[in-house]
Amino acid sequence: MAEIETVTGPVEVATLGPTLMHEHVFVLSTDYAQNYGPGAWWDEDERVEHAIDKLRSLYAKGVTAIADPTVVGLGRYIPRIQRVAAEVPVRIIAATGVYTYGDLPFPYANRGPGSMFGGAEPMIDDFVRDLREGIADTGVKAGFLKCAVEHAEVSPGVERVLRAVAKAHLETGAPITVHTSSAEETGRYVIRVLTEEGADLTKVVIGHAGDSNDLAYLMELADTGALLGMDRFGIDLFNTTPDRVRTIAALAARGYADRMVLAHDASCWIDWFGPGVLAMRTALTPNWHYEHISDDVLPALRAAGVSDSQIDQMMVDNPRRYFSPGLS
What we know:
Layout: E1 3-6, E2 9-12, E3 19-20, E4 26-27, H1 30-36, H2 44-60, E5 65-67, H3 78-85, E6 91-93, E7 95-97, H4 106-109, H5 122-132, E8 144-149, H6 156-172, E9 176-180, H7 187-196, E10 204-207, H8 215-222, E11 227-230, H9 241-253, E12 260-262, E13 269-270, H10 275-284, H11 292-303, H12 308-323
Parallel strand pairs: 3-5, 4-13, 5-6, 7-8, 8-9, 9-10, 10-11, 11-12
Antiparallel strand pairs: 1-2
Helix pairs in contact: 2-3, 5-6
């Protein structure tokens, strides 16, 4: 039977129930947290317990798995995630890759194609090792690849990551999720580069596509076979929930329910905002949390004419297809 790696070990893909396809547990700048967080806003045990509570509540809403695209650049630290995963019924699928909008981390910047010292691309070997052997010495294998293309003017570092992700995908069959900017329509660039590399676009999620209500742009991406990440519910600063719902309903009516996946891009803790700003952010985006889809979005989708079978496609069938091993 086809299996997908999770933080607590492999499971059969066919057993994945409703899955949120883009949720972080923690987003941290590790060196910043270690130097400035303890005794102020970061208590390891407290944050782990908080995450356990959040994921148990999510499971009670019927969600059985999350894809966590926290990679290098977002503070991936698997031992902390293992502590959470051991105490919750939600299956957490970890990722490998690099998250940057511009420059590469220094361990990669001076090695590899186009760098000072040249040579083969070291990211490929690192990503493949995470997928096949495990991340560091944790025994946890990544289940998918993640990178980001935020700006229309793509830096050499961002292009290197995207092409390394594509090559690791071709070597392992692991699927890909790419953070994109709908405002700058960087999904087109992602599709072009991944096509050049020979990637299987049916194994690609164009992350944050749901920030757009431009049906022509969204259908153009979906017509390549790629999945649309309708995955920022609750971040009303980018697109309101009513508009996101209307867009999904319009696409579902046009036959695209088999090319959309749902999520919030939420987290239990993110250190991109100081404690004061974090409180303000919560006031501005009160629905940016794991349960907004279960509580509010699914009823709104049904009211907009989206059928239960289409919701199952987006939350169950499409994730299962995405995580089924190998290239189609």
